[in-house]
């Protein structure tokens, strides 16, 4: 069934404690908002409208870079106003299925979406819900009543509707601020079906929720290892670029770009970790635009591809194999430059050097070899 999605990410997140609003915080290396948008895009949403606070559209473009089929609109002062803004931004017929989802529930999956679409058949709306398992008490400082939990459910999102139903129901709504969209449908006399909920559809509300979510997110992520190797021959020159640092030398490395073998090897390691080929596929040496190019552009591109997949770089380790120049005096500067390019703490960047004791092409000082390893954490 074709469906559209409205993801609400315009709240101020007061209860979540100090820091950024919830959608813009990081969860296992990617923004909370990105988790939901990725899930709906993967599930085949024909249209995704992300509702953000006024002035946050540029932030959305940054954290959702590389994801297809979404656009951002400004929300209102309340959640209901933001939902209405998102619904109004959708295109298509009134009988089209639409999901309304809170960005603060990052663990939505295709299975949740499929269950809701099935439950929507013959109903005006469908919500995921869990039966209340805890004993319920009413009171202030002390208990005044034990409340029966029979027939009580915990409503979650996403919630599914026919596009025309919530649009008309919100237009007729005269109550206060509704706690969810299904309440508006119910008030208009609509039938809302219950679908099986999931404890994983937890809502990030309080500071401690983020710690739990980090543990849960770690179960759905894997670590990938990539390796890169690069070599360049020596030629006439007065300086060489290695790991982003210019070193005065009586020779230079020969290549189409600046021939920074260290950066090339790390770039290939990152590309290998995410299965994106090698540096030559992304920056062909036959392309004149890369002649003499600074290789930090190549490395930043590879890092961007990792981020676009919802991944994060854990560490990089590069070994330079050469007789000259001496690497130790420049190692700290190299680590600092790599950390800057990759936005990593410096203790996650390693630069080492060795010789081959006069053996082979590096021992004969015909060229320099770089070997790199990178570890990357990505969604499973």
CATH superfamily of the largest domain: Spore Coat Polysaccharide Biosynthesis Protein SpsA, Chain A
Total beta-strand segments: 19
Given helix and strand content, the structural type is alpha/beta
From the alpha carbons, calculate the radius of gyration and give it in angstroms: 27 Å
Inertia-based shape: elongated
Helix content: 25-40%
From the 3D structure, determine the CATH topology of the largest domain: Spore Coat Polysaccharide Biosynthesis Protein SpsA, Chain A
What would the average pLDDT be, to the nearest integer?
A: 92
Question: Largest sheet, described in full?
Answer: 8 strands, mixed
How far the N terminus sits from the C terminus, by CA atoms, comes to 26 Å
* Number of discrete domains: 2
**Secondary structure tally, helices:** 12
Percentage of β-strand residues: 25-35%
**Which residues form runs of ≥5 with pLDDT under 50?**
none
CATH class of the largest domain equals Alpha Beta
Q: Under the CATH scheme, which architecture of the largest domain would be assigned? A: Alpha-Beta Complex
In brief:
The protein is 30% helix and 29% strand. It is α/β, with parallel strands linked by helices and 380 residues long. Strands 1, 4, 5, 6, 7, 10, 11 and 12 form an 8-stranded mixed beta sheet that branches. Strands 16-13-19-17-18 form a 5-stranded mixed beta sheet. It has a two-stranded antiparallel sheet with strand order 2-3.
């Amino acid at each position: 069934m074709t469906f559209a999605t409205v993801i609400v990410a315009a709240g101020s997140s007061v209860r979540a404690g100090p820091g950024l609003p919830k959608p813009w915080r990081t969860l296992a290396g990617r923004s909370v908002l990105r988790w939901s948008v990725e899930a709906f895009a993967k599930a085949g949403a024909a249209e995704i409208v992300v509702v953000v606070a006024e002035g946050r559209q540029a932030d959305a473009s940054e954290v959702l870079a590389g994801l297809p089929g979404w656009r951002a609109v400004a929300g209102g002062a309340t959640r209901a106003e933001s939902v209405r803004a998102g619904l109004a931004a959708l295109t298509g017929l009134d009988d089209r299925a639409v999901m309304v989802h809170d960005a603060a529930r990052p663990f939505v999956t295709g299975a949740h979406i499929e269950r809701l679409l099935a439950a929507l058949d013959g109903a005006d709306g469908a919500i995921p819900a869990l039966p209340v398992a805890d004993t319920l008490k009413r009171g202030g400082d002390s208990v005044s009543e034990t409340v029966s939990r029979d027939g009580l459910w915990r409503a979650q999102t996403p919630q599914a509707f026919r596009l025309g139903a919530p649009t008309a129901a919100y237009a007729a709504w005269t109550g206060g601020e509704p706690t969810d969209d299904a309440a508006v449908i119910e008030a208009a006399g609509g039938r809302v079906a219950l679908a099986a909920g999931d404890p994983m559809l937890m809502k990030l509300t309080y500071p401690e929720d983020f710690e739990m979510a980090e543990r849960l997110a770690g179960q759905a992520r894997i670590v990938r290892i990539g390796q890169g190797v690069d070599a360049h021959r020596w030629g006439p020159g007065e300086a060489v670029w290695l790991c982003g640092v210019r070193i005065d030398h009586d020779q230079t490395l020969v290549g189409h770009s600046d021939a920074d073998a260290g950066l090339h090897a790390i770039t290939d390691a990152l590309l290998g970790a995410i299965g994106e080929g090698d540096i030559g596929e992304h920056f062909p040496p036959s392309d004149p635009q890369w002649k003499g190019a600074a290789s930090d552009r190549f490395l930043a591109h590879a890092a961007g591809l990792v981020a676009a997949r919802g991944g994060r770089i854990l560490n990089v380790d590069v070994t330079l194999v050469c007789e000259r120049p001496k690497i130790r005096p420049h190692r700290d500067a190299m680590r600092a430059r790599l950390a800057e390019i990759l936005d990593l703490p410096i203790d996650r960047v390693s630069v080492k050097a060795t010789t081959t004791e006069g053996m082979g092409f590096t021992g004969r000082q015909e060229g320099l070899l770089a070997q790199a390893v990178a570890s990357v954490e990505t969604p499973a």
